[in-house]
Amino acid sequence: MPTVGLTDRFCATVKGGAGRVDYFDETVSGLALRVTEHGRRTWCFHFRSPRDGKRARYTIGTYPATTLAAARGKALEARASVEAGKDPRLVHASRGVAQMTLSDLVRAFLSDPEKAELRSLSEIRRRVEKNVTPLIGAIRINELRKRDARTVTDAILARGRKVEATRVFEDLRSIIRWGLENEYLDINPLEGMGKPAEATVSNRVLTDEELRTVWTTLPKALARSKQVQRIIRLCVVTAQRVGEVSGITRAELDLKAREWRLSGARTKNGHPHVVPLSDLAIEIIDEALEAAGKRHELFPTADEGSLSPAAVARTILRAQQSDDERPLGRFGTASWSAHDLRRTALTGMARLGVAPVVLGHVANHRTTTRAGVTLAVYSQYTYDREKREALDLWALRVTAIIESNVVQLQRAGA
Question: Which has more pLDDT, 255 or 17?
Fold first, then answer.
């Protein structure tokens, strides 16, 4: 990143280029003016956190609301905090605790460097900013009461979102506990408060008619997202998790061998997994590869990386929102999730006569494939042939369903 002698004229006239650029100040070490491609200018202070030694960034303000002189003054204050062994982000958040609102506490929690490693941090941010801060964010933290938390969860329950209400409550409780640990609060206002609803395991399995309806209405229901259309179809055909499907890369695919190979880093249980690909799966993948162009990811985003499973879930959720004209949403079926597609596929294979141990290998469920001493220690057979037969058979069944041919297929050799 360039280091320049920042002046008021430079700050006012510098243009944004491709992406974003940090112009570091020659006068105050660590101070930078971040300019985006759209011309937005933000003052940032870069430092190495005294808490964990990692590089960090503290947002001071935006230009021209915060002048160059003011930004330098705040950067010098931040530098003094670092030299005193304190994180300037937390120092800033802790000022005026008596006047601190819940929104202030949420921002301090989300900016804690120790929380940066949480895989769920972006989802916590999304849930809290959607459900909590708009309703009770202005309340001072020393005036927060159980009834305020109930206001939030009752609004979510009124929308029929039982699981979301529980997760938002858990987010709020975690933020409050963090506030106690960091001395923003003296007492826990949610102490003794129970969850609004216990999360329950879904047993939803789509019927053949529902599966045909979902598959055939995808182009219209999700007209703006062909990526999610293909992800949903691959979830059905491969019986794999939505996060694994949405994160497919070219390096994982061997189309000559007709296999999708996941490393342990990409699976829920940390064990490598090979998914045989049926003709139907390869057809969908070929379309996605062509659409992805030269990108490494099969389902790339506008920036770097793959489409996230949370983004897929939100797209599905929006399509299922009901109104007077469409009481069952755009799909015209009862509500379902991406994980219900995996359950539907595995249930469908079981109905076709696929053995439980083979289903376990298709699903990469170690509790099934390595249950007991015999399977865990002595039998090292991987069931590759049986997995391929099961997924090929299921692909034929799916094809029959979507073509309205629901004749009962018999398992080969049965």
Answer: 255
